[in-house]
Amino acid sequence: MSTPAPSKVLVTGSVNGAIGEFFRKIDKLNGKNGPFDLLLIAGDLFDESGDDTEEVKELLGGSIKVPINTYFIAGVNPLPSSVLEKVNGNNPSGEIAENLTSTCGVMKTSQGLKIAYMGGVPEGFVPSVPNPTDEAEEKNENEDNSDVNRKRVHYTKDDVKSLIKTANSESGDGIAMVDALVTYNWPLGVTRLSNQPFNSSKSVSEPVSRVCHELKPRYHFSSGESLYYEREAWYYSDDVKIGKSPNQHKHYTRFIGLGGLKTPTKTKWLYALNLTPLSSIIQNGGANDPQPPKNATGCPLRIFDSSEDANGNTNGNKRKAEDLDGGDGATNPQNKMAKRTPPDGYICRKCKKPGHFLRDCTDAEKEPSTPPEGYMCKICKNPGHWIQRCPERVSITYIEGEGPGEGENEGPTSLAHKPPPESYICHACNQPGHWIQNCPERISRSKDKKKHQEISNCWFCLANPDVNKQLIVAIGDEAYLAMAKGGLVADNNNSSDESTYTSPIPGGGHMLIIPISHITNLRDPSTMKFLTDKPRHFANISTEAWSDCNNDISRFKKALTECFAKFDCAPVFFDICRNANHQHSHIQVVPIPISKKQEIRQFFQKIAKDESVILKQDFHENPYFGFFRVDLPDGDAPLICQIPPRAYFNLQFGRHVLAKFLGMPKREDWKACVLEESDEIKATQNFTEAFKPYNFTL
Fold it and tell me: Which residues form the signal peptide (predicted)?
């Protein structure tokens, strides 16, 4: 049986009432990249007022044209009265205007796509209201709020059950054959197990998580967080598969969170894809469905006990959240501890109050970042920081010259340091003379496997097929230059806020200098010669290879300095080296106005002092410590902060300081600054052209 041609589908986040502008953009996009078969709006079409605005009237009257067959769901905003009348009236199709349909439940398109929708917010949702100044204001405020809340669309526990039952009425290979699930809320737990962590808190929903887990859609689109977030695909369990041998594979879901058209931060708000009906793929034995991506994870979703309500509320001894198909959820003893209430009589040692365990004490957040006057660190005998944050803090085994080995128990008294008896045979290589944990063949296999896994999941390895190649500007012999995704600075073409600093450099100029090889840090290995008797996480490059790579990096630094100077800017270079669990190293480059280059050092030192980060120009090299380093354009020595093993350090510290220095703290989070792919390509092209006179790779 032949598989039908895939449908061209366009999905967007919230429109937020900009109806005319939105459909004009869609019409232009459809003419340029279409025609699209379907448009799905995974959020609010109307604004937060719920009023029948002029644009609402023009839409319902036909003055605003809808160019594509479009389906929208309810979000958090109330629906205008005129729209509610059409939705709740004698109109089974749900069409409120030509080509525009409000929908819920399950729909099958003419192309065979099965799409499930669950719009609105959970039953019982009440928006937060400001504290009133007196009883009269409180009464009026709550009355107004109740009226608005009545216009909202809410889903209940019964709605969740009905949607799941309807979707499962037609199934294949044990799944509901849903091609796309569209909801406003994000599913609870979706960011767990991901290498792209994001603290979703504004609009997560346990009922949505339950629906997603039951329906197992190929794609799940939501817009409740108003930010773009494309999570790695996840699979469900070993027995949830589609297709037949030899094409059988685990079924998986991709989650896409979308921004909105009118949001304070410019973020990606639309997503286009070609989609073949899952029912057709299953009928053809899975022959046309790609295998799960290599970076797919276990299912991150979390659901509550069925005795709880649709919003996951509990009381008494009811069970709380469960993790589905893997993870570290309710079965983890530490998580159980976090969910328990302490026994009567328990007093927290930190705040001297009952009601919570020490590890859950919120007073920990109130601890001052700097110690009181007179406090002296007992390790380095200097004031200004707590002993826990002392850069010279190190265990006795390090002081004695025994750095942390790769094994948990490796040390001067461990078995690994004693020779095995003559009769001992290593089970890995069947040779005598060494313990199995020191077997060179076993270590080599482990390193090769680890390196392959690192490269296949690495954002910066050119060997990874998923690397963002549209951001690459130049490739040298040992390093390459790329635009930063979600760059801190933007040029006039991509700035979303006129009040913030805009870079005169085409494309913005926030760059990354990246080694081509998968190097875990840029530390000079020649200074670590005395450590080569033991395998080290940071000793993954020879002195010669490091020299070649460093040569390319130095040339890129020089070229960027000259290029930025043409636009009256100077570069700030910063990088971080961690002593463990660090991926592909790179150097970030951010331009600042050349007129401010004498101010940046003092600003870095001030922020560092305020946040108990110790920056020094001279320090004693400690091979067991990581470090943060920033090279400033004032010509003086770099500032360096040493990072002890297992110590916390904000990996975004460099960007955090520069965002404040340039007066745009809202751009500190790179995820809030991600451009649409077409804008990324244009920005890269613009910078590449400006960089051409300085590009030594041409």
Answer: none
Residue 191 domain flag: yes
Element (H, E) at 7: strand 7-12
Backbone angles phi, psi at 590, to 5 degrees: -125, 125
pLDDT of residue 130: 35
104 plus 11 within the same structural domain: yes
Residue 38 pLDDT more than 80?
Answer: yes
Give, as one character, the DSSP assignment of residue 673: G
Residue 600 pLDDT class (50, 70, 90 cuts): very high
Q: Residue 553 above 70 pLDDT? A: yes
- Omega within 30 of 0 (cis) for the link into 92: no
79 and 151 in contact (C-beta within 8 Å)?
A: yes
Beta strands in 34-125 (DSSP E): 38-41, 70-72, 95-97, 100-102, 105-108, 114-118, 121-122
Residue 126: what are its φ and ψ, rounded to 5°? -130, 120
Same domain, 490 and 445: no
pLDDT score of 376: 83
* Beta strand 587-593 pairing with 511-515: antiparallel
From the list 622, 616, 572, 609, the residue with the least C-alpha distance to 594 is 572
Distance CA 76, CA 623 (A): 53
- What average pLDDT does this structure show over 354-366? 63
Cα separation, 521 vs 606, in Å, equals 27
Closest CA to 307 of 316, 318, 294: 318
> What are the CA-CA distances from residue 14 to residues 55, 101, 200, 242, 645 (Å)?
16, 15, 17, 33, 44
Helix axes 81-88, 54-61, angle to 10 degrees: 30
94, burial (CB in 10 Å: exposed 0-12, middle 13-18, buried 19+) = middle
Q: Please answer whether residues 231 and 194 qualify as being in contact, where contact means their C-beta atoms are separated by less than 8 angstroms.
A: yes
* Cβ contacts of 374 within 8 Å, gap of 6 or more: 383
Half-sphere exposure of 96 (CA within 13 A, CB side): 25
Structure tokens at 422: 């003559």
For residue 567, is it within any domain? yes
DSSP assignment letter at 599? T
